[in-house]
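TEACHING EXERCISE
Course module: macromolecular assemblies
Task: Read the component lines below, then compare them to the predicted structure of the full complex.
Student: A.B.
Group: 4
Components provided:
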Amino acid sequence: LFLPLAALILLAAGCDAPVLPGTPNPANRPVPEDQVLDFDALYQRNCAGCHGQNGTLGPAPPLNDALFLAIVPDDVLQNVITSGRPGTPMAGFAPSHGGPLTAAQVEVLAKGLKTHWGATDQPRSNTTPPYLIEPTEPSEADRQAGAAVYATACAGCHGKQGEGGDTAGAINDQAFLQLISDQALRRLIITGRPDLGMPDYAGADGRPAEFKPLTAAEVDQLSALLAGWRSAAVEDAKP
Ligand code: HEC
Ligand code: HEC
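Instructor-supplied answer key:
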């Protein structure tokens, strides 16, 4: 009996015979971009440049922040990654917004933020101000109340009018305010930037002795003040 070599190889391949030298191992083949479903790989490739390698210390708000992840609703994570935040550097990553990620990849990231970095050991107090910004237009009275809260909670580091101080930079600065949403400002007031030394809504470090944790109403008022700094400049610039 006599079989040609080619037939032997075919038979061998069909029954898990030893792999011939030089045969590529399918496990080593690079996964096509749109098939990558590993959180770390997706995060490093698409997000780390702005949000920081480990989700902190980047130019964009930290995502690896237990308080942020405790208060941000799941559908916000999904929507922001899908559609971005118009008017800010945060672009939409879904194909519907011209982005490079599939719906499945967006979901891996949205869910993975909480499972990889979520708050497990940090109990959420029921006085923590809510993440979502009020959709109502803030009033002049809100802005004035915000200025009073600012004087105690923020001025010591950022300067009396947000012009910057010894320990922290300017926030009443158009180059900064024009590129950040009211929602992100509100979130930074609540979470602080623990990676950069800014205290959260309850943090007493670097604040005067009379400081008390910010209430939800005070966070609304502060958000109104900061948004007002932005729109005041826009008004001034109108002919
Ligand atoms: C103990 C000092 C301290 C206090 C008090 C403080 N901050 Fe900050 N803040 C910082 C530091 C430090 C940074 C990061 C470095 C920088 O931007 O100068 C920062 C950054 C910021 C940023 C920019 C964050 C970013 O991601 O670019 C905003 C907005 C801000 N603070 C708002 C506030 C507001 C509003 C208050 C009052 C509720 C406040 N801060 C209170 C120290 C402080
Ligand atoms: C080019 C820079 C850039 C890249 C890349 C980027 N982001 Fe962002 N991201 C931002 C900025 C800036 C904001 C704040 C936007 C605002 O002002 O509301 C933001 C906001 C967010 C928020 C909301 C945070 C909050 O405080 O409410 C989430 C969630 C988020 N990004 C997730 C991601 C994920 C996941 C990726 C990767 C797929 C990503 N981002 C890539 C710049 C970026």
